[in-house]
Amino acid sequence: MFGTIRNWLIYRAVKRALNHPMPNQFFTSGEKANVNHFFQVTFVDPATEITFLVDKLSDKGADGVVRNKFQAGGLYGASLPYAQFRNLRLRIKHYYRGYEISYSSPWSFFWAEVVNYAYWHRRNDIRLQKLYNQQQLVRQDRIQVLSHFLTRTIADRNYANSSIGLITELYGTRWVHHPDEENIQSYYALIIESLKSSGDLETAQSIYCRITPNALSTLDTYAEEKARHVENTAIQRKIVYLTIVLALIAVVQIGVSAWEELHPDPPSSQG
After folding, report:
1. What is the pLDDT of residue 178?
2. Is 198:218 a contact under the CB 8 Å cutoff?
3. Count of helices and strands (H, E) across the chain
4. Do 38 and 22 touch, CB atoms closer than 8 A?
5. Which helix (H) or strand (E) is 78 found in, with range?
6. Among residues of the chain, what percentage have pLDDT more than 70?
7. How do residues 110-135 score in pLDDT, each as one tens digit?
8. Better pLDDT: 55 or 60
9. Which domains does the chain possess?
10. According to the model, what pLDDT value does residue 270 have?
């Protein structure tokens, strides 16, 4: 029935996963996602990217729904013979208490089941999030954000991003659970709007923005002003040092004069 040992292993993995079948409706975020504990089992044709979503197993194979993004309608019922399992890519996604964990082979799935990987993954991630939440998310100013856009655009001429995407690039994905999340989101939304108002960024599509040629002039002007500021600061520092040195010299001269007045040379004796 299975044809090969690999097909049999895939069958066992699918059967095990379907002990916790995917419900018709569920949540992937928020408090309601904390009750999740089920698996989504799919097979993907590597040549066409057509996806077969497994609903149940039968005597001859798997019954489910085919999802074809290139065909009108997109979904239709179908069956997949056991012998075809080895020709397709297996994907098992575990929805576990707000987390999504994917497996691409029966071996990785069985290993995860044996060691209770989902439980330990969630526990470790919660610990890491607590450590992350203790950090202060240092905000970047307009010039730093504009420099970030320039650096990314040099690497990719089609680069565009939104305020949410920008925050994720700067702080990683954990920022969404940080206590300062709302303030950070509001701050960078204002930064993006400010750069758009000054003509340094422009709307690319929807909520995405890209850099404009005007940004180069802005960054050059900033660099010149910064260099000028550094030079002026250095000059002012030298003036302060010189003033201190002159003051010390003056103090020494006053001290010498006072000493000479208090201790005049004795009169010379004449024979």
Report:
1. 95
2. yes
3. 7, 8
4. yes
5. strand 75-81
6. 93
7. 999 999 999 999 999 999 999 999 99
8. 55
9. 5-133 (no CATH), 142-214 (1.10.10)
10. 55
Give the side-chain half-sphere CA count within 13 A for 233. 6
C-alpha angle 207/211/216, rounded to 5°?
A: 160
> Distance between CA 211 and CA 189 in Å, rounded?
16
pLDDT bracket for residue 234 (50, 70, 90): confident
The token pair at 226 is 């910064």
CA distance 6 to 83: 10
- Kindly report each contact of residues 194-200 with a partner whose C-beta sits within 8 Å and lies 24 or more positions away, as own/partner: 194/142, 195/142, 195/145, 195/146, 200/146
Q: Answer whether 92's CB lies under 8 Å from 103's CB.
A: yes
Which residue reads 């069958």 in tokens?
11
Structure tokens at 215: 């940004």
Q: What is the pLDDT of residue 75?
A: 66
Name the CA radius of gyration of the chain, rounded: 35
